[in-house]
Write a structure and sequence with these properties.
The protein has six helices and 44 strands. Strand 25 and strand 26 form a beta hairpin. The protein folds into two domains: 98 residues, Immunoglobulin-like; 613 residues, Maltoporin, Chain A. The protein is 6% helix and 57% strand. With 774 residues, it is mostly beta strands. The two termini are 38 Å apart. This is TonB-dependent receptor. Keywords: Receptor, Signal. One of its GO terms (biological process) is siderophore transmembrane transport. It comes from Dyadobacter luteus.
């Protein structure tokens, strides 16, 4: 008996002392040409032995204890790179794709993790590890962006972003460098009219299982970016593990995910990664459980296949698709009605899909050629019925149909002339189709808009001195739009310029300027403002914006930094009412219909200052502290300067967390996020006119004169990671809006209550999730 007890104790002690290990590996390549860099020095903290890349640019650290690491890569003649916040878990390898920029000399380390877009200011990287670690992200990189200065969510229920006081419609979604249609489920989430937006939604269709690092740009974009005024979220797909088959299973309030990745064969470096997700709320709805009378369902599938060749470069084939629906069923007992919505059946359906091919190839030692072909499409349908209890039926009161299709091609060449000169030039070409169908109780209409958008660009990077780098660029937008009876053509020429001065190894000053343009929303072009015939606004030019940014950055030890930016954005050619003097401006439109003739005579002005202190996750804690002071105004056709709809005047965000390691198996983490954002603007409601017309009527001469209360929301995320030999598990609990603060969303005239009613954003929401990686 004693012998058996000793054996058990020994075995238990051995298991508890066991170090669970995995592998960190990757490749190092030239950022301009994509060619492998042989002989680069690669070091890993907590590991005394460094290594060098082989002839394929590959490196490998095997049997490394699970935990967090900092990877350092250096190569003579290139900028050194430090990659912090690497999380190594048992059961999965950590594979890094590193791109180094030629510098002509060995410079001090820069804290980057991939090939950043050529922007000196207003650019933030969003890693998938951050997306899964930060509190209240819904595993969506767009929601991570609310931790950045000058960025706020338009509404808790969706990921539409207000950037530096601009409408969410000023932001552009990109995938693999190409603009795509709105890649979100439930694009009506959180909107005033419950109708679809073009740039946001409740849940991102792309699961984190497919995404690589994303880049968020908020102003003065480089020349390769166009057709956006406020911001760009540039998402990239990761390639699957090309040596080992791996799986992920995840369940939570967002959905149930199943992902797989691996090589096609041991003889090839070709790989795949795929993910399927079904909403957890959809499962609950199928068994009769809903939330506030609403049933929400969605599902999506996405994949990426990577196909490297020996001489023809690397190809990839990718695709994603998702369907979602939101159904609100009226209470059939009219005595229980409290607001006007209680007497309506509302059905919203959303479908989105995209697919494409990418190809990149090296053309010698100084040149690379990249091409992306993408097709993307979106359809939304919303129908609203008034329920007639006495007649035991319902009557269709309004129906909205929206469809968008984009066929896009992007091709560009990067050529490094020498150590001081680099040129990037290319062309975007997009064939677009927009269809809007409206049905109201007085009638209906349907219009289609088609056309081409051509965007050539060129960007020249010149190293003036060892510590001064400049960029000069030129971007152009040429559009041809038409309906069955109208045509509209426009073109712009947009200069871009930037300079970065490295004062010393830890400090830099930068300045950026850009003239940017954006086409109008489809509902602006297809406005139905005549009762007898269609009379759209195809004569309108794109809205343009001069954007200037001055930045300063100080890097400290242990991967921390302070960044300050001041910006000025002057918008011109803004559509305002033609022939009538009033307060309307297209800068304040989100999902609303536009039923008036417009002209490009309005203006807008945003300016502010931002500060960010960031300490990345080292020594088991991290901090991201940001804030901004800003002003956003506009001028309508009446010549009066007013606060814009999103002029909250300030943003503040604290995001931070601490990890606690328990032995070699367990890690506990607690993360917090606190948002304090100035309240957006609302327009007073004319109660008498609203009562007479039985709908909400605003006092237009007092547009956006009401400032709502400041937005305050604290979130907490607690997780527990457990490692085993062949797999790892993560149990997490998100408590979103843990204080239960009632943040205002908007006010409207309720036809049932016969008075003005305030609508609030989300309260306390607990989100439990479980993740298994093996």
């Amino acid at each position: 008996m004693l012998r058996i007890l000793l054996i058990v104790l020994f075995t238990t002690s051995f298991c508890l002392a066991q170090n669970y290990t995995s592998t960190i590996r990757g490749t190092v390549r030239d950022a301009d040409t994509g060619l492998p860099l042989s002989g680069a020095t690669v070091t890993l903290d907590k590991n005394s032995d460094g290594t060098s890349t082989d002839e394929n640019g590959s490196f490998r650290f095997q049997e490394i204890a699970v935990g967090r690491y900092v990877l350092k890569i250096s190569y003579l003649g290139y900028e050194s790179v430090v990659i912090p916040e690497i999380l190594l878990e048992s059961g999965r390898e950590n594979v890094q794709e590193v791109r180094l920029h030629a510098s002509g000399q060995q410079l001090r380390e820069a804290t980057v993790t991939t090939n950043r877009p050529g922007a000196f200011n207003s650019v933030q990287e969003i890693t998938i590890e951050q997306t899964m670690r930060y509190a209240a992200t819904y595993l969506d990189p767009a929601r991570v962006a609310t931790s950045f200065p000058g960025v706020a969510a338009a509404n808790d229920q969706a990921n539409g972003l207000v950037i530096r006081g601009n409408s969410p419609n000023g932001m552009q979604w990109r995938l693999e460098g190409v603009e795509i249609v709105n890649p979100n489920h439930l694009s009506n989430a959180g909107t005033f009219s419950d109708r679809a937006t073009t740039t946001g939604g409740g849940v991102n269709i792309l699961s984190t299982q497919l995404l690589s690092n994303s880049f968020f740009l908020s102003g003065a974009f480089p020349a390769q970016y166009g057709n956006a005024l406020s911001g760009i979220l540039d998402m990239n797909l990761r390639k699957g593990n090309d040596e080992k088959t791996e799986f992920v299973a995840q369940v939570g309030l967002i959905g149930i995910d199943v992902a797989a990745e691996g090589p096609f064969s041991k003889k090839s470096k070709a790989s795949y990664v795929a993910n399927y997700r079904y909403s957890f709320t959809g499962l609950l709805s199928s068994i009769g459980i809903d939330f506030g009378g609403e049933a929400n369902k969605f599902q999506d599938f996405s994949f990426n296949v990577n196909l490297p060749t020996k001489k023809a470069g690397t190809f990839s084939i990718f695709g994603l698709g998702g369907i979602s629906e939101n159904v609100f069923t009226a209470e059939r007992d009219s005595t229980l009605w409290e607001v006007q919505k209680d007497g309506r059946d509302i059905i919203f359906k959303n479908k989105m899909g995209a697919g494409g091919i990418t190809h990149n190839v090296s053309l010698g030692n100084r040149t690379s050629w990249n091409t992306v072909l993408v097709a993307s499409g979106l359809t939304t349908i919303r129908q609203s019925y008034d329920v007639k209890i006495a007649a035991n039926n319902r009557v269709l009161t309004d129906s909205d149909e929206l469809s968008k299709v984009r066929f896009s091609a992007n091709t560009y060449i990067t050529h490094r002339v020498n150590d001081k000169n680099r040129i990037k030039a290319g062309l975007y070409a997009t064939k677009q189709y927009d269809n809007i169908g409206l049905t109201r109780y007085w009638g209906g209409s349907e219009q289609q808009l088609t056309g081409w958008l051509i965007q050539p660009f060129i960007n020249w990077t010149y190293k003036i001195a060892d510590n001064i780098t400049s960029e000069l660029g030129l971007h152009s937008m040429i559009s041809t739009l038409k309906t069955h009876i109208l045509k509209g053509n426009s073109s712009t020429l947009e200069p871009r310029a930037a300079v970065k001065w490295q004062l010393n190894p830890s400090q830099q000053v930068s300045f950026s300027y850009g003239l940017h343009s954006q086409l109008q929303l489809p509902q602006v072009y297809l406005a139905q403002y005549s009762t007898t015939q269609f009379a759209g606004n195809l004569h309108l030019k794109p809205t343009r914006s001069h954007h200037l940014v001055l930045g300063y950055q100080k890097n400290f030890v242990k991967n921390s930094s302070l960044k300050l930016e001041a910006y000025w954005q002057q918008m011109i050619d803004v559509p305002v009412t033609d022939g009538i003097r009033n307060s309307f401006s297209a800068l304040n439109v989100i999902e609303n219909e536009v039923n008036r003739r417009l002209e490009n005579s309005g203006t807008g002005r945003n300016y502010g200052i931002e500060a960010t202190y960031q300490k990345l996750l080292t020594d088991q804690y991290y901090i991201l502290l940001s804030g901004s002071l800003y002003d956003a105004t506009y001028v309508g056709s009446d010549g009066v300067r007013r606060d814009s709809r999103f002029n909250g005047r300030h943003t503040f965000s604290f995001t931070g967390g601490k990890e606690f390691k328990k032995g070699t198996q367990s890690t506990w983490g607690i993360n917090a996020k606190i948002l304090w954002v100035g309240g957006f603007r609302d327009t007073p409601i004319d109660i008498d006119a609203s009562t007479a017309s039985n709908t909400t009527v605003y006092l237009q001469d007092q547009a956006f004169s009401v400032k709502m209360k400041d937005y305050f929301r604290p979130d907490v995320r607690i997780y527990w990671k457990k490692s085993k030999t062949r797999y790892s598990r993560t149990l997490a609990l998100d408590l979103q809006n843990i204080s239960g603060t009632k943040n205002e969303a908007y006010s409207y005239y309720d036809t049932f209550k016969k008075k003005v009613v305030a609508q609030y954003q989300l309260g306390l929401i607990p989100v439990l999730s479980y993740r298994w990686e093996f």
